[in-house]
Description:
The complex is a heterodimer.
Chain A: H1 3-10, H2 23-38, H3 41-70, E1 76-78, E2 84-86, H4 88-99, H5 105-136, H6 140-144, H7 150-168, H8 170-183, H9 187-191, H10 193-221, H11 224-248, H12 260-272, H13 289-313
Antiparallel strand pairs in A: 1-2
Helix pairs in contact in A: 2-7, 3-5, 3-8, 5-7, 5-10, 5-11, 5-12, 7-10, 8-10, 10-12, 10-13, 12-13
Chain B: E1 5-14, E2 17-27, E3 31-35, H1 42-49, E4 57-62, E5 65-66, H2 74-81, E6 83-86, H3 98-109, H4 113-126, H5 142-154, E7 160-164, H6 172-189, E8 192-197, H7 200-206, E9 209-214, E10 217-223, H8 224-230, E11 233-240, H9 243-252, E12 256-260, E13 265-270, H10 277-286, E14 289-295, H11 300-307
Parallel strand pairs in B: 3-8, 3-9, 6-7, 7-8
Antiparallel strand pairs in B: 1-2, 1-4, 4-5, 9-10, 11-13, 11-14, 12-13
Helix pairs in contact in B: 3-4, 3-5, 9-10
Amino acid sequence: xxxxxxxxxxxxxxxxxxxxxxxxxxxxxxxxxxxxxxxxxxxxxxxxxxxxxxxxxxxxxxxxxxxxxxxxxxxxxxxxxxxxxxxxxxxxxxxxxxxxxxxxxxxxxxxxxxxxxxxxxxxxxxxxxxxxxxxxxxxxxxxxxxxxxxxxxxxxxxxxxxxxxxxxxxxxxxxxxxxxxxxxxxxxxxxxxxxxxxxxxxxxxxxxxxxxxxxxxxxxxxxxxxxxxxxxxxxxxxxxxxxxxxxxxxxxxxxxxxxxxxxxxxxxxxxxxxxxxxxxxxxxxxxxxxxxxxxxxxxxxxxxxxxxxxxxxxxxxx
Amino acid sequence: xxxxxxxxxxxxxxxxxxxxxxxxxxxxxxxxxxxxxxxxxxxxxxxxxxxxxxxxxxxxxxxxxxxxxxxxxxxxxxxxxxxxxxxxxxxxxxxxxxxxxxxxxxxxxxxxxxxxxxxxxxxxxxxxxxxxxxxxxxxxxxxxxxxxxxxxxxxxxxxxxxxxxxxxxxxxxxxxxxxxxxxxxxxxxxxxxxxxxxxxxxxxxxxxxxxxxxxxxxxxxxxxxxxxxxxxxxxxxxxxxxxxxxxxxxxxxxxxxxxxxxxxxxxxxxxxxxxxxxxxxxxxxxxxxxxxxxxxxxxxxxxxxxxxxxxxxxxxxx
Lengths: 318, 318
């Protein structure tokens, strides 16, 4: 490369173009956040675990229908020494009851419930990378000195978290819904349209609640270890506590409201149209749907209020 | 546009603390130094100029844009598009590469993604970071971090740069390089620069004008040349013998004794064209033993106070 060409390259050059609206910045923030997360091996390891749950449901649904078609009318002989004859329809019924792989609200509710364990662990790690670092490294002035408001910043981060959550919950649940229609009948899509709406709404509830809560806790704690501890307290300890209080000490079922994931589950099942009395397991009494939804809404509102206060407080440039 | 910054009795309070008191400034476009010790109110003023903080009272305009009442007003977005801000804090996003970081800044300013990315490459090349542009920001040295912060401020080619301590943490060579860059941007590419610093030498190198801020008040404003002329040429002397005669001889040569501890130790201020050997010549003539002679650089704080007619007590033993 000639020296004159290199000199030309090193010259400052002006830029003339048209600026776009502030909302485009939301997508840029979300994309940058996702790039940070998707580069981490830990994320892909944990995502692999969540994918295993999806694979279990995916092939479980298929195998169940496959078995139903393959089994004839004749009784089956089960067991080695103590054999017994079982009718195929009885066997399938007990399998259906045990696994709930029947394309019902319980199928998707259970699937999302199990995915929740992995989602919570991933989000505990994601929080410090995505938001905590902005506070820890003083990066907030980088964002807020641009023509965007704190709510654009919050929306960008929520969008990134939402994509991660939906990658593990809503999208696989929708795939299961589509799969069941294929292996059952086409009428399934029409008859169970409320389930489709329910899955989307459940996903939206998870996205909103968890992203706002993650933002709020990350701005508060910033570092990974405290984040993991708080999330374990909220989601694992909360669950153990509610079981101990209600099932162990026989306190009223309202005590289950301290388990946030259970509240989101109840809200989701409500939208999917599941009767409250039929909630599984039948032995465990659950608080009314509206109470659980109220708790979820309260968590969202408190998180928004906290973010409003916190992000304004650090809007001090250096 | 007559003035880059036009402030009229602008004040800002934080609870009982008054960070800025009746600041009135009329600054034409150009390279301006904002000098002041820590806590002088420089950062608060920068925040107000960027529209991040509303003033408690008073009015102002930056680049003919009025300072609005709230940081999330659309008018402030317009203002921030005209400004490139380089914060003092790291403000980096660990995990992103240099080109991603600068590109993200461009997108936050409202540039379309492709243009932002292309411009990021150009700016990084101009700032001699082309070889480091695909490296993670975590691996950058202090000098590179300062330059990449400048790059993100230049990405959208703003007419005004607000720089908060741009040479902070740099070694002498890095500092010289940064100051040369800033001088070039201002002098050759017509950028208006507001350089907030506590280092007089930085202002002397880059700026044409200076504003001295102390305790939230503007204590002085003028051309850097004038300030430079006001800097005192001082020495510390340690004498033995007939010091009265020595003092008279010094005064006849145009020097002035600032402080005398009555034990033969003085601080003297001499004319600008003073030659050090004059001290020895006078000592020889007056038969005085000159036991010690050291240069006594006037500190920035001393000069601030003297400039604003608040002459600090000059002690010899300090």
